[in-house]
Amino acid sequence: MTPFLQAENLSKRFGDQLLFENISFTIFQHQKIALIARNGAGKTTLMEILAGNDTPEFGQITKTGDIRIGYLKQIPDLDENQTVFEAVFQSGDEMVEIIRNFELALHHNHKEEITKYTELMERHHAWDYEVKVKQILSQLKINDYDQPISELSGGQKKRVAMANVLINEPDLLMLDEPTNHLDLEMIEWLENYLEKTKITLFMVTHDRYFLDRVCNEILEMEGNTIYRYRGNYSYFLEKRQDRMDSAAAGVEKAKNLLRTELEWSRRMPQARGHKSKYRMERVDDLIVKASQNLNENNIELSMNSSRIGNKILDLELISKSYGDLCLIKDFTYKFQRFEKVGIVGKNGTGKSTFLNIVTGNIPADSGQVEIGQTIRFGYYQQTGIEFNPGDKVIDAVNKIAEVINFEDGRKLTASQLLTTFLFPPDTQYSFVEKLSGGEKRRLYLCTILMTNPNFLILDEPTNDLDIMTLSILEEYLRVFQGCVIIVSHDRYFMDKIVDHLFVFDGEGNIKDFPGSYTIWRNKQLEEEEHEKKLRKPETRTVPKTVKEKERKLTFNEKKELEKLEKDIEILESEKMKISDELHSGILTTSQLQEKSSRFGDITGLLEEMEMRWLELSELA
Length: 620
Description:
The protein is α/β, with parallel strands linked by helices. The chain has 21 helices and 20 strands.
């Protein structure tokens, strides 16, 4: 395999915090690698270094030749003065520039320009590429080319930046949380696109279905060490557990040895100065190893929520519209104790509006919302992070409550909750301003849970949270003694938590579906396939005239038909072989030109042969 990019002994600090130290790995051509680590471990910083936007304190990055890197940032950095069209087609690539100018001419109906760039499209065999570009724009719902970037939401900017990086087809594609702000259909399309393409991929994502289906290698960054797993996410889980079990066994063995060594070191204290230096150093090493904490979820999560009464939440004929846009129409539902509901639907179909009506943040246009007297909402919002940067982490939670007192007499302190959600004691006394974006989301989640709610409403809780935190949150929700409503594009998370779904269709209708996301999506795909079959027009055979019936293949035409079938098969095989060579990345410039020219010639020949084959086969 050809090495595209090599990281050697990279180290980086953020202030006085060590992010990673002496980590090394190589990205080879055609690999699809995911990087997994806790929030705050430096994933985004590492991506910035690999992309050339930051430098390590120590170590170096080596790139092979002049490979092109395309980097989708977690928060895209777009020119606010550009239009969507300009941002999407920003490129130094000649082919992309030709397609850009052709599309621009079409958009403004400049006939002379259309003629000019049509000829260039022909000359550069750009039509297949143009079809791919239009598919990308269509799937990412990018339609208004003239809209200024300054008017776009964060999610729209992410889609524009993604379209740009995919259209440019870099040699190495780097994606930082690509599924954030995409709806479920877009995520499934991107998943299929990346799975089928031969591009080299390096990404950070918390979407575990996405990881499982797209990536063939996982890099786990933990404790300043890189662990490599040559397989998908399911393989990673299996092998990581093996590693953790082995490490746990090593810690237990170290504890047993430590007992023996400590017993020896305590003998005859008056002669301590004459003790073996080697054995004393060994004691120090064993103390370090034996004190390792390998239990990531070592706090009991089976916490009772505050008492919940018989009446929970009743919605009766609620409706909400904005102008001509109807988001919710005459929806009625009565919540039962302990139910967990997932909400799915495309972006802009009213999911967040529904949550705000339920919690009383905005009124419904009509209908009634009745909330039980014992209900205490915990509402995790997409835009809810507001901390004083000068506060310490523990203070941000203590402001909500220092301790939760349960009815059975148990207590949960703010420190215990923070430890559960991967804020160890030393981090709890760090300042909020030193936290990463993902760590702030995790801290925000802790402030919500510290209110001891009995009805949790989570609007996109999985955005920017690492996989370790998601696993803890899933366990917390699994044993949560209250009601839960979740809006999430994370299919894995939804499948693990919810009992049924509210499906928003975008026309105001909300359907209650009894099952998980995967069951609903499979049923939806079956229905779409059935509709396609119903829409498929029947093929009608036109009766031949008497002359056509009488007309038969001559001897020479039979020979020609047989030869055509053999020649077409040979050319198709050659075309496929050349296509693989063109995508291999190992051809020289002259070889690329030669192969591309031959590819075009074969395509033309095949079209002619197939037309002639059709004519003759009609008479056979």
